[in-house]
Each structure stands twice: as C-alpha cells, then as structure tokens.
Amino acid sequence: MGLRQVGRPRPEAPSAAASVTEEQQVPIAFLPVREEPKRFRANTHLPNRPEGSTSGARTAELFSAGRDLIYVDDTRVFWESDNDKGDVECDHSMHTAMEAPLRLLIELVHAKGGTLEVQDTYRASGIHNPRSLHKEGRAIDLTCDELGLEKLSRLCWAAGFDWVYYEAAAKGGAHVHCSVRRDHNQPSLTAQE
Hints:
Order of helices and strands: EHEHHEEHEHEEHEE
Strand content: 15-25%
Largest sheet: 6 strands, mixed
Distance between the termini: 36 Å
C-alpha cells in the first residue's frame, strides 16, 4: 500500500543512522491546543454539530490510500490489531491529518499515567457504515482503562481532534470516537468552539 512510517523507532531496532543533532534536539513541549472541558457526558459530542458538518463527509473520489495514509507507531500505545489475532486490519494506518492530534493525545494520556488503546482506525471495508470516516482513516476509536472514557474524551478534545464523541453503547463496546477534517490544522487555544 506504500504507507509512510512515522513515529518512534521500535526499541529492538534503533536507528543506526542517528546523528548527533537528532540526539541533541530539544524536546517539544506537549501542551493541549484547547482548554479541556470540565465535563464530557456519555453519548455527547463536541462540537455540538453533526460529525459530517464538522469533519467533512467521506468522499471516495478525493481519497487515495497510497497518498493519504501513513503508518503511526508509538510503543506507549496498545494497538488492538497488534494484539488481536482475529483482526486483519492495521490500526497503525490512518490519514495524515490524524497524526498531529493523535501524537498530542498520546503525550497527554501518558502524562496522566494512562495507556492509550487504539481500537480502530482505517477500515476499507467491514463493520462501519458506508459513510464512515474510518473508510478514509479520518476516524479513530479509543479507550484508556486507567483514565476512564469521560477523562479520555476531555483529553481528546484538548488534543485538537475536530469532532469527539463519547460513545457509550447500551450493548457494550463503549469508546471515544474522534475524527478530523481532511485538511486538518491543529487549532490554537484562542480558537475555542
């Protein structure tokens, strides 16, 4: 599929080409891009608009897996597809627009002592409806046992995802669903919704 890999190198395979300047880089300050809401109730979303009007509708003609998808890895994340033998999809594959808010979320969750769990990202076919943004890798389903879903929802919003939904299904499978616009730009603290 030609995915570009981004992320931290796996510990068992450190980069032999690491230069002195890479090793001496100043760490990036991982600050939230939005203020964290005080509450985030189950079965609610931010902003208070439909996902399609916020993150944009799925448009098959504008999507190219080879051009738009990247492979993201971070050893601090539990990637369901790496641990579920019945999962044939790769949860590391996602739209390039998903990278910035996801990386910030990983830092925020890690700073709170949690482990982010990525349940679902890009799905060309399968369980999602035909209009799902998962089919373009612009949606992601997340959990975090240590922090709980309300806190995770609040952190997802603070990390800059365009649309965040705390989905507490009556039949189980509760998670936080986030999505981004195709042309996502990380918001600033002054751009409150």
